[in-house]
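Researcher: Sequence recovery benchmark, item below. Answer with residues only.
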């Protein structure tokens, strides 16, 4: 087993481990996180209702992935700044802009970016279809920003385990049991936090 590859500053909190099956280091991201790298490693996550965007510039050897969920509440735009969920209502935008900006910051070029989208499953039958809200958001975002969508695996009822190879854009997806209890509990907890706490981090430069 080799030493862990060096990560960019700011990603020290991301769990990274050696996976003997894939013979590679793996960075595991959780809901609300993202990770960008120039190293030959894998980025992984498990999404249920959430969506992950895998983004890479293979020409310049850099890529990243995020994991986000929109809140279920809808707030009129003129009320955003007057509510605790103001930032959360726009969380998908934050999640996308942060990972794209990081890729560009470390040498990627916007015209080279290629996206693959995963998640948005309806795994919580008793709740509003959060997965479809996430799908509608991300499709509209990609269309509005003029980004190059290479592939998607969205919707249905299944959680998905995603393995992303950020230097090449390759993605492996494994569909999991529809009612994976641990995934449901994690997403419920994340959603509760998302609806009650504004996002910290200030303004994001848009490209």
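Model:
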């Amino acid at each position: 087993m080799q030493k862990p590859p060096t990560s960019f500053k700011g990603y020290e909190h991301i769990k990274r481990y050696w996976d003997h099956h894939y013979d590679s280091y793996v960075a595991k991201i959780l809901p609300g996180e993202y990770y960008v790298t120039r190293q030959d490693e894998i980025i992984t996550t498990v999404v249920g209702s959430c969506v992950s965007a895998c983004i890479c510039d293979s020409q310049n050897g850099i890529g990243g992935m995020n994991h986000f969920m929109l809140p279920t509440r809808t707030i009129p735009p003129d009320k955003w700044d007057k509510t605790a969920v103001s930032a959360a209502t726009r969380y998908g935008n934050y999640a996308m802009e942060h990972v794209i900006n990081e890729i560009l910051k470390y040498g990627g070029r916007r015209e080279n970016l290629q996206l693959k989208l995963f998640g948005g499953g309806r795994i919580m039958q008793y709740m509003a279809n959060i997965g479809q809200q996430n799908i509608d958001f991300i499709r509209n975002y990609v269309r509005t920003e003029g980004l190059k969508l290479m592939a998607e695996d969205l919707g249905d009822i299944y959680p998905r385990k995603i393995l992303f190879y950020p230097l090449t854009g390759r993605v492996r997806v494994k569909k999991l049991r529809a009612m994976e209890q641990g995934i449901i509990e994690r997403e419920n907890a994340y959603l509760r936090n998302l609806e009650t706490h504004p996002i910290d981090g200030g303004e994001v430069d848009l490209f």
